[in-house]
Amino acid sequence: MSIKILLDKCTGCTLCVKGCPFAAISMIEMEAEAKPKKKASINLDVCTLCGACVATCKFGAIELKKELTAAKDLSAYKNVWVFAEQREGKIQSVTYELLSEGRKLAADLKCELAAVLCGDQNIEDEVEHLYRFGANKVYLITHQELKHYHTEPYTRAIAEAITKHKPEIFLLGATTQGRDLAARLAIRIGAGLTADCTSLAIDPEKKILQQTRPAFGGNIMATIVSPNHRPQMSTVRPKVFKKSPLDKPAAGELIKFSPVLNKEDLVVKLLDIVQDESVKVNLAEAEIIVSGGRGIGDSKNFAMLEELAALLGGAVGASRATVDAGWISAHHQVGQTGKTVSPKLYIACGISGKIQHLVGMQSADTIVAINKDPDAPIFKVATYGIVADVLEIIPLLTRKLKELRQ
Ligand SMILES: Cc1cc2nc3c(=O)[nH]c(=O)nc-3n(C[C@H](O)[C@H](O)[C@H](O)COP(=O)(O)OP(=O)(O)OC[C@H]3O[C@@H](n4cnc5c(N)ncnc54)[C@H](O)[C@@H]3O)c2cc1C
């Protein structure tokens, strides 16, 4: 994309200066005989090409050129790709979830499923896991600078692979890495991107990807398509899809390459890795979650839930209301703006079950809801419902469990 002021049309009215949300336009002096004396000028270091100024200019004096990728031959793009996210040399679970879902998309499109794995030379040991979850091909991109995730070298290397091999769909985890990489890549290669999808499907007629995600604060589910750009890119949070390995031994094709990384791709240096406190909570991986909502009445009552969770070998979750109230840290929050979880057992204690909470936990195998209000929406998704005071039920449950243990 490019932008410029058409000086012959600029009247010096300054509307664009006021209309630019990024303060990227200023008025500059013209030559002595020019009329008007000052005209608009765009600072391209600050301009984001958002187009707001084009809309404010009444004289058609700003030209924003978009190079439409619609002109690309879309039929040249084939196959479903998954970004194989690794940390400390281990492939992250979200990769297997995306491969498991990617298998269905690839089957509907009658195409291949591939994974893209970046790392240093030692990462090759991880490749076989990707085959086990259905990857027909693995693009292995190795370089010393790819050992740990960095935005620029990863973007450079994967953009090169996409440009060369032309995948039709590219899925990434909506994790810190995936979100960062997806946005940068989408701009670099001129692709459409839908973040935080909760379901993916192939339109049976048009054969394009339908990307569904909550919108307007979770009040509607929007299905987004990217008909004119390739690849169609989506991020999906961990635990939205279930991982299912193939039931037979699998192998695939390994395509290796080492990217050329320039000096400008390596401007960020990794000094230290500090363990994220939320990893200790490990909510996303927990098989049992005891989760508290505003109905528990007080921050100190989380101790009750912690005791029960510890007895069950599980973790403590929370609704946003309790996090906002400062009762518990945000690392515990389940829901649209918290974590998506899919445990075997989810015990919702004093949680009303607003849609923003449900989208984060409704795929749990068994949901037990304890709520005083028999009409609370949580009961609509609950496997078992207990209409009672949670502050009475939890101690009873804990006592019973202790007795059984003895
Ligand atoms: C953009 C956006 C994003 C959001 N993201 C999230 C998110 O990620 N996660 C999330 O949780 N929320 C999220 N929310 C907030 C969400 O809409 C709800 O406000 C929140 O989930 C309510 O939390 P709660 O169920 O604990 O509280 P409440 O809605 O106040 O419900 C408390 C429940 O406890 C019951 N109760 C009261 N006393 C007792 C008792 N003694 N025993 C048993 N039951 C009792 C009540 O009947 C009630 O059903 C989001 C909202 C928006 C707009």
TrEMBL record:
Q: Does the keyword Transcription regulation apply?
A: no
Q: Which residues bind FAD?
A: 294, 319-320, 333-337, 350-357, 371
Q: Which InterPro entries match?
A: 4Fe4S_Fe-S-bd, 4Fe4S_Fe_S_CS, DHS-like_NAD/FAD-binding_dom, ETF_a/b_N, ETF_a/FixB, ETF_alpha_N, ETF_asu_C, ETF_asu_C_CS
Q: Which domain of life is it from?
A: Bacteria
Q: Which GO terms describe its molecular function?
A: electron transfer activity; flavin adenine dinucleotide binding; iron-sulfur cluster binding; metal ion binding
What cofactor(s) does the depicted protein rely on? Answer: FAD
Free-text cofactor note: Binds 1 FAD per dimer.
Record's Pfam families?
ETF (PF01012), ETF_alpha (PF00766), Fer4_7 (PF12838)
Iron-sulfur in keyword set:
yes
What are the residue boundaries of the 4Fe-4S ferredoxin-type domain, all occurrences included?
1-30, 38-67
- Swiss-Prot/TrEMBL GO biological process terms: fatty acid beta-oxidation using acyl-CoA dehydrogenase
Protein name stated in the entry: Electron transfer flavoprotein subunit alpha
